[in-house]
Specification:
Blueprint: H1 17-48, H2 65-93, E1 101-108, E2 111-115, E3 121-123, E4 125-129, E5 134-140, E6 145-149, E7 154-158, E8 164-168, E9 174-180, E10 193-198, H3 200-208, H4 216-226, E11 252-254, E12 260-262, H5 265-273, H6 296-307
Parallel strand pairs: 1-5, 4-10
Antiparallel strand pairs: 1-2, 2-3, 5-8, 6-7, 6-9, 9-10, 11-12
Length: 310
């Protein structure tokens, strides 16, 4: 295969690529072998067992139990191999390392916006460091989009009013194409960008250049005070009208209807824009719905702020 790509696959640019490529080629060559075997068998049988004249009566054929067992067992084994291999790859694709560098991505017609932890922003081009896991937390301001980097073998739908995520670790410096693979309007085909992979030193220098906006978590802290969130939700563990934000992110939460959920990004956003959807056990349903008018920047900032309260 190699890093430069093949007839079937583009160049390999991430740590995820080799395992996924191996699965693809395993499935591909098994399919080729089966296709050739079936095609040859059909041709041979069509010639060998063709009816040679009108009086030709074929003999009665009895089943071959060994053959029937083989064509049940062998495909089953192959399916189990592909399923197990694919499921392990799926788990890896959705299990970013704990130390992954997190970047917020906002999709809109027809561009990608990126916000870094220190407040640095970029549009179109995503700048990341080489040899470091990067996790993208993504949402959309309008319609359904899909973030795809062919060289990294990662693709993830980006949905309005909720978060999705994807991660990768680039293995080489350079530029790699970003595509939107979900039809999102008249300029869908022009919703392009690049992942620019830099050395750690160049990335740090780029990250510190021209930072004018607040970091998302810093903006979230400002909103926490300005919007009077601190009246009902403490950040030090103190019990107020609503649950404390201390240690909330990633915690298993129990609701009044007996169900539970992990407090991830989607749960936090839902609790802000639709607070009546899930009421935490032991607390009254008193949060107003006025925060449903928050825009994506405000929601992202509040989520980033809450995630830091550990």
């Amino acid at each position: 295969m190699g890093d430069k790509g093949t007839f079937w696959l583009p160049e390999s640019g991430s740590t995820l690529s080799p395992g996924l490529d191996s699965l693809f080629y395993f499935t591909y060559w098994i399919s080729v072998v089966i296709f050739v075997a079936v095609t040859v068998a059909v041709i041979v049988f069509a010639i060998k067992y063709r009816r040679r004249n009108d009086s030709d009566i074929p003999p009665i054929v009895h089943e071959n139990k060994l053959l029937e067992t083989a064509w049940i067992v062998v495909p089953t084994i192959l399916v189990l191999i592909v399923f197990t291999w694919g499921f392990r790859s799926f788990l890896k694709l959705h299990s970013p390392p704990a130390n992954a560098y997190e970047i917020q991505v906002t999709a809109k017609q027809w561009l990608w916006d990126y916000t870094y932890p220190n407040g640095k922003t970029s549009t179109g081009d995503l700048v990341v460091p080489v040899d470091r896991p990067v996790r993208l937390v993504m949402t959309s301001t309008d319609v359904l989009h899909s973030f795809f980097v062919p060289a990294f073998r990662v693709k993830q739908d980006v949905v309005p009013n909720r978060y999705s995520s994807v991660w990768f670790e680039a293995t080489g410096q350079g530029e790699y194409h970003i595509l939107c693979t979900e039809y999102c309007g008249t300029q869908h085909s022009g919703m392009l960008g690049s992942v620019i992979v830099q050395s750690a030193e160049d990335f740090d220098a780029w990250l510190q250049s021209g930072v004018e906006d607040m970091a998302p978590a810093e903006y979230g802290a400002l909103l926490y005070t300005q919007q009077n969130c601190n009246v009902c939700h403490s950040v030090d563990g103190t019990r107020l009208v609503g649950p404390t934000l201390l240690g909330l992110f990633g915690r298993q939460t129990t609701f009044t209807d007996g169900t539970t959920a992990v407090a991830d990004e989607n749960y936090i956003m839902e609790s802000i824009v639709n607070p009546m959807a899930k009421i935490v056990e032991g607390y009254p349903p008193g949060m107003p719905t006025i925060y449903s008018s928050f825009d994506s920047d405000q929601l992202n900032a509040l989520v980033a702020f809450i995630k830091e309260q550990q």
